[in-house]
Amino acid sequence: MEEKVLGKEPKEQPMEVQMQELMLHGRPFMRLMNQYQCAIMEVETKLKVLDSEFSMEYDRNPFESIKSRLKSPVSIVRKLESKGLEVSVANVEKYLYDIAGVRVICSFVEDIYRLMDLLLKQNDVRLVRKKDYIGRPKKNGYRSLHLILEVPIFQAAGIKLVKVEVQFRTIAMDFWASLDHKLRYKKHIEHSDEIVRELKECAEVIAGLDSRMQQIRNRIDNQSQEK
Fold first, then answer.
1. What would be the CATH architecture of the domain defined by 15-222?
2. Which of 1, 40, 202, 211 has the fewest CB atoms inside 10 Å of its own CB, making it the most exposed?
């Protein structure tokens, strides 16, 4: 038990100590990370099967690329800290929903919603949470569709349900979000309010571009069907 000195609060553990505590769990932590990696592969496989079906049925692909990532141990510790939670393997699994992440980049907004619907119709996929920042963009202009899914992974001990965050964006949305992320973490920026306003204006221009490209594609598809 930590001894408390009268009139003084115990010091918070530095990041290095908390990292060591997490890694001291050793095998349980690595096993959990492997489960998240398997869940990512499960989601990627489902999306690639849908992509193949679209390609045969409609002679086009519903998405351009898939990116995936696992949160680093440092990011995991910081996320637990921000929630005021003890650093432990149990808390990682219980309270953090975005350890495993998949980002799907589509050409058109309609394909985003179509892929979401097809993915959620699969009887082994459970929707935990949905945040539609396309229909309701963030104040800074950010647009994306976020889903927290629970998918089964098949282990020697049996089936386990694991959470995965899936983000859907158009190419234009991803371009804006990437630049916004780089600019947001620049230090000592002058006229920051003006830059925030300009970034939001750029997001609105990009949303307008997505809408126009969708309309053009629909016109092309309609003309093709008439022939």
1. 2-Layer Sandwich (3.30)
2. 1
Residue 6's pLDDT is: 38
**pTM flag (> 0.70):** yes
Pairing status of strand 158-170 against strand 126-132: unpaired
Question: Which parts of the chain fold into alpha helices (H)?
Answer: 15-24, 27-58, 73-82, 89-95, 109-120, 171-184, 192-226
Would you call 187 helix, strand, or coil by DSSP? coil
Give pLDDT, residue 10: 41
Residues 138 and 71: their CA atoms lie apart, in Å, by 23
17-55 pLDDT tens trace: 555 565 556 788 889 999 999 999 999 999 999 999 888
Write the CB contacts of 133 (distance below 8 Å, at least 6 apart in sequence). 142, 143, 144, 145, 146
**Alpha carbons 30 and 23: distance in angstroms, whole number:** 9
